Each structure stands twice: as C-alpha cells, then as structure tokens.
Amino acid sequence: MNRKFLAVLLTTVAVLQSKAVFGQLSRIISRFEERLPRVDERLEPEIVTEGVVREVLPRSVLTLTPSQTNFIDTHQDEITKLEGNPTLVAANREKEFIALTVDQQKQIFRQYGQFFKTSTPSQDFSRTSSNARMSIDVMQENGVRVCPVSTEMRAITLALTSDSELVQVVQLPDLQYQQLVFEEQCLNTNCHGVLNSRCVAVPRFVRACVIDLSTNKITMTDIQVECCACHVSFPWQ
C-alpha cells in the first residue's frame, strides 16, 4: 500500500469519525434545549431571605387600590413641594402617604423579599461607609480619616430617586420586615490633611422597593441616600 493511498484513507476515517462525534453532540444539545423554558416562560430567580426559600413566581405589576390612588391625587401639591426641596424630604423621612394592606404587603414580600430585613434600625456604627461611591474614604499615615462620619441604619419612608422624583419606600410593618438604608453625617467641616477642602453631604444611590407616587405602581428604583465626601476646591475653579 503506497503512502499516498494510506494518507487519503486515514484522512477519510478521521473525517467520518469527526462527523459521527459532531452528530452525537448535536443530538445531546438538541435534547438539552428542549428541556429549557421558552424565553417568555422563564421565571424570576429564586429569592432566599432570612434562610427561607419561597416559591418562585413570575414578577407581576403591583398597583395601588383606587382609594390609595385617590389619596395621592388629592396630595399632589404636597408631593410637588417635597420634590423641589431635598432638605424638606430629609426632614420628613418617616412621613407616609400610603398605608399598605396586609395582602399588599404579602404580595410585595413574595416579589421583592430580597430588599427586606428584620434588623433593628438606628444603630450608630461610627465609621465611614465603604458603599459611599463619592466619599473619599482614605486614611492618613497616622490612621485619621479624611472625613470622619457618624453612620446610621434607618427605616425611611420618603426618598428622592436619581431623577429627583418623590417615592415612598415600602415598609412591611404587619410582616415585621423593614428596608434599611445606610446614611452618613459629616462630623467635621474641613477634610483632614487636605488643603482647600471641606466635608460635604452628597447623595449616593441605593436600589430599593418603592411606591412610585407618579405612576401609582410598586417597583424597584435607585433612591438618594446621604453620605459624606471631601470636596476639594482648585485654584482655577
């Protein structure tokens, strides 16, 4: 048998083997894909809260009752006033426009349970938040922070979104679950060891479950939470 014929024979065998393997892989992949749910049938990821695994359900749109919607409509002037004044919102963090029914609270907890904790608020940790995106959380060589802060975990009910729209942060009192936010307050006016600077309150953004007071829907959005940052003034500013 000459070498040329042998080479052709080996190549032919290799091709046939490759086709056979490819065919087997294709059949395996097809059977696997048949078991997958269709795109419009896929469910939300499983939610685990406080060690309890709840039923996996499709996320539906939750809305307010007609009486709750009417209450918001009659208080639009107050809502507009708050939206234009972040200081006023901060002073009314615990104000509540809508009292949710027990059934509404249960529906919210089934869909947005990952946002809620049973922790006790108002704990002062006296440290700088590592989550504050805009904070300068660095130390000098002697261990002194640039902007020392007091921190607090709070269960708030009113907040502004990243678009400065007023929302009510959902709390579930009947289920004894809360949404807690981590807030900072500057303890010093000047940044330690930084020239031409001062410690100022700035917003950071936290994802929360809220009542949208403009659409009357219960949804997720980013809300503004106060944190402390070192603002440096440059000569050319």
Termini separation comes to: 88 Å
Biggest β-sheet strands, sense, barrel: 5 strands, antiparallel
The string of secondary-structure elements, in order, is HEEEHHHHEEEEEE
CATH topology of the largest domain: Cystine Knot Cytokines, subunit B
Mean pLDDT: 75
Q: Which structural category fits the helices and strands?
A: alpha+beta
Judging from the principal axes of the Cα atoms, what is the shape? elongated
Strand content: 15-25%
CATH architecture of the largest domain: Ribbon
Total number of helical segments?
A: 5
Question: How many beta-strand elements?
Answer: 9
Task: Describe the overall structure.
The protein contains 5 helices and 9 strands. The chain has a 5-stranded antiparallel beta sheet with strand order 3-9-8-6-5. It has a two-stranded antiparallel sheet with strand order 1-2. The protein has 2 domains: 3-36; 58-232, Cystine Knot Cytokines, subunit B. The protein is α+β, with helices and mostly antiparallel strands. The model is unreliable at 35-57 and 121-142 (pLDDT under 50). The radius of gyration is 28 Å and the shape is elongated. 23% of the residues are buried.
Produce a short descriptive summary.
By secondary structure, this protein is of the alpha+beta class. It has helices spanning 3-35, 66-74, 76-83, 86-91, 102-112; strands at residues 48-49, 52-53, 62-63, 149-154, 158-160, 166-169, 181-186, 197-212, 217-232.
